[in-house]
Amino acid sequence: MIADVDNDSIVYLNGETLRLGDAKISVLDRGFIFGDGIYDVVPAYSGRPFRMDEHLDRLERSLASISIQVDMQRADWEHLVTDMISRSGLGDCMVYIQVTRGVAARDHAFPANSKPTVFCMVSPFVRPGAVQREQGLSAVSIPDLRWLRCEIKSISLLGNVLAKQAAVDAGVDEVLQFRDGFLSEGASSNVWIAKNNVLLAPPRNNLILEGIRYRLLEELAAQAGVSFEARPVSTEEVDQADEIMMTSATKEILPITTYNANPVGSGKPGPVYEKLRKGYDQAIRTLEQA
Ligand code: PLP
After folding, report:
1. Is 153 an active-site residue?
2. Is residue 145 within 8 Å of 138, Cβ to Cβ?
3. Most buried among 81, 203, 215, 240, by the most CB within 10 A?
4. Contacts of 259 (CB under 8 A, 6+ apart)
5. pLDDT for the residue numbered 4
6. Does 5 have pLDDT greater than 90?
7. Strand pairing of 227-230 and 243-248?
8. Among residues 153, 164, 275, 278, which one is catalytic?
9. What CA–CA distances, in Å, run from 31 to 104, 165, 264?
10. What DSSP assignment string belongs to 142-206?
11. Distance of alpha carbon 284 from alpha carbon 166, whole angstroms
12. Which of helix, strand or coil describes residue 99?
């Protein structure tokens, strides 16, 4: 029994669907021993996956980037996502997919013949509510102490776990991580600033995980007539931003209105956020009505 989860919920493990409470893996799984695996999280609204193609593209990129070959074609991944959503009976939910290099004797180098472990579960998703949307979140800055392959959606999340705990310890919602004087990202989100009606985000490179909302926000900004620039964003620019925002599958887009204990701009969600939020909500409605 695992506390605080629905042990009767249905999960997928290596080709089988079974109760979460009955799903077991070997202690020699390389995900457990080395954190040797990748994951992705696909949000769904009213039972429909949002941006599934982009999430599955990233899943396949992550697998390729650490040389894990799984005997699953694109259609199999799509079926896994949609089938697990329908088995869950949930409307708004998160589909978590994890693939590890599988079970082998403990040795750092890739084993010759391990079979990847494929796991999938679906959890209820409570969308960010009015308070978060209207009052915004708080954040503090911390140094980014993670490795230099942040573009891989690795299950080795110790750096992100420590970053998130730094937020909890500081009594705030999120941290903004900085490397060599420049913004990278949140503990589990991408971070954006607005200055003079221009949206800025750190460039896509090995220092950040490119969220599926990265391209989405570019599209929403273009639709809303907000110019967008991907370029290094300095500590000072964040300090002087008119607006700060974060995006992730679970947070969608939310404003950060308190940063290092100071109000950001007016201290209220700003006009760039409002435009992007409107576009985001519309994208969800379009999916639900398709
Ligand atoms: N950056 C990190 C480190 C993350 O963990 C996440 C999401 O979990 C993101 C960015 C945002 O990615 P997405 O928009 O695909 O959820």
Report:
1. yes
2. no
3. 81
4. 138, 139, 140, 141, 176, 238, 239, 241, 244
5. 81
6. no
7. unpaired
8. 153
9. 11, 22, 40
10. EE--S-S-TTS-BS--HHHHHHHHHHHHHTSSEEEEEETTEE---SSSEEEEEETTEEEE--SST
11. 32
12. strand
Cα of 50 from ligand 1 centre, angstroms: 15
Task: Please name the residue whose Cα sits nearest to atom 4 of ligand 1.
Answer: 188
Give tens-digit pLDDT for 248-267: 999 999 999 999 999 999 99
Across residues 96-104, what is the average pLDDT?
98
Q: What is the pLDDT of residues 64-86, one digit of tens each?
A: 999 999 999 999 999 999 999 99
CA distances from 131 to 77, 134, 269 (A): 36, 5, 11
1 pLDDT higher than 70: no
Ligand 1 site residues, Cβ closer than 6 angstroms: 160, 185, 188-190, 209, 211-213, 247-249
Of all protein residues, the one whose alpha carbon is nearest to atom 3 of ligand 1 is 188
Mark out the alpha helices in 1-141 (DSSP H runs).
30-34, 52-65, 74-88, 130-135
- Token pair recorded at residue 55: 């999430």
